[in-house]
Amino acid sequence: MTNTAAALVAEAKPAVFWSDRPDAPDVAPALRGSINADLCIVGAGFTGLWTALLALEENPGRRVTIIEAEVAAFGASSRNGGFCEASLTHGFFNGLSHWPDELATLERMGEANLTAIIDTAQRHGIDADIRMTDQISMALTQWQVASLAEYAEIFTAHGVRHTLLDRNGAREIIDSPTYQGGLIDHDALALVDPARLAWALRRVVLELGASLYERSRVTSITQDRNTLVVTTEGGTVTADRVVVATNAWAEPLRQMRRYIVPVYDHVLMTEPLSTAQMAAIGWSERQGVSDSANQFHYYRLTADNRILWGGYDANYYYGNGMGPRYENRVASHELIAGHFLETFPQLEGLGFSHRWAGPIGTTSKFAVSFGRRFDDRLAWAAGYTGLGVGASRWGARVALDLVDGLETERTELEMVRKKPMPFPPEPLRNLAIQTTRRAIAKADRTGRDGLVLRTLDRFGVGFDS
Ligand SMILES: Cc1cc2nc3c(=O)[nH]c(=O)nc-3n(C[C@H](O)[C@H](O)[C@H](O)COP(=O)(O)OP(=O)(O)OC[C@H]3O[C@@H](n4cnc5c(N)ncnc54)[C@H](O)[C@@H]3O)c2cc1C
């Protein structure tokens, strides 16, 4: 960390760029008293909003109620990088390592899901700056160059359209002295403005007839014969079916806490780049970029030519710790600000306008998992790790299949039927996560998996993403 990085971070506003806007929707009323619903959805992030939209488009008469603890998109859904990828498995290689036999099906479903998101946006007049573009992994070390070459061979074997770049090829696209090579994945990414997308989904589900209660935290969900009772501090919803879409907040259901841990991911947003600054880095095709270590940065341009720069330093806090006190970790922001300056030295003097963090819900397989309770009247979908902007629509679709008792190609998947390995309770949970973090950092420094990662691999807890 340099003094310059600290000074730049000190000037940034601790707020989420995407939702720090005057046209945020007015807050909906809180739940008061008792109401009935056919389907009650807990959580109004992407998963909850897509669940409502899909349920209402299929069955316009269904009484759908959404209960949100804060406001719609308060969680990860407004705080992310806006990389809306086709992958449902946290990347092709994570999918290959955990579900090799069904990866072709999952890839096909992921492509259809991304197309459906774009079609839905067109159908409902959603303006969320959605653009298809390439996704590039940049190699920063020689072992990463070798890994990308191996990945390119695997892409070739699976028919994935890609381009392998040498150092000059990478730097012709975006000029950073840190690049040693790169791998372009051509057809799998749309960049979006996530808060605009979530707010538009909120508008659409209200137009389709959903009722939404905000600032209404669900404190319990119980079964009363053939119905479920969803309780908040101010009221209750008696519902035939419930979908829990609280992702990293695995609180209303104890079962979820075994499989989901919240990890805080940190993001910086620069001021808009001038024409001269844009010319100094290139990036004319506005691709989504990440570097290819296990601890990686992801970055992209916004509509007004800012650079969103996030990732690398993901923090778990004891006891699934969550809340505002974890969103302001200056040391993490300074660390990634230093990496930004190393990546783009030609942008020295460019300030950061915003800095924030958000909770990523993750599982031991780094992809969405599903659970059912109360005679399958309730389903939950959570744990997308860093790739839920697109996959959350598919997670919503699967959760609806599950609560509606449908047997579909989706519900047959091992990824849907089989839960990942649970995390142990505290204090072992914290110990295991911090040990794994250190092992990952070491693997990034040396280019080799150590004993911890190899052992985890043997138990199906892989790190290929
Ligand atoms: C910093 C960051 C960067 C990311 N970048 C990307 C990216 O570029 N691309 C990508 O694909 N993914 C990314 N992700 C992940 C992605 O944002 C999430 O996977 C996705 O938004 C999950 O949506 P969700 O609706 O399941 O969860 P959330 O958006 O977290 O929604 C859960 C909702 O449940 C509510 N809630 C919680 N508890 C209760 C309760 N008891 N009662 C009622 N409501 C409750 C919360 O307030 C919240 O609104 C990122 C995440 C973070 C944090």
Report on this structure.
With about 475 residues, the protein is an alpha/beta fold. It has helices at about 5-10, 45-60, 75-80, 90-100, 105-125, 140-155, 165-175, 195-205, 255-260, 275-280, 330-345, 390-405, 415, 430-445, 450-460, and strands at about 15, 35-40, 65, 85, 130-140, 160-165, 180-190, 210-215, 220-225, 225-230, 235-245, 260-270, 290, 295-300, 305-310, 350-360, 370-375, 380. Strands 1, 4, 5, 6, 7, 12, 13, 14, 15 and 16 form a 10-stranded mixed sheet that branches. The longest helix has 21 residues, at about 105-125. The protein is globular, with a radius of gyration of 21 Å. The two termini are about 25 Å apart. The model has no long low-confidence stretch (mean pLDDT about 95). Flavin-adenine dinucleotide binds next to helix 2, helix 3, strand 4, strand 12 and strand 16. The site of flavin-adenine dinucleotide (FAD) has 43 residues, from helix 2, helix 3, strand 4, strand 12 and strand 16.
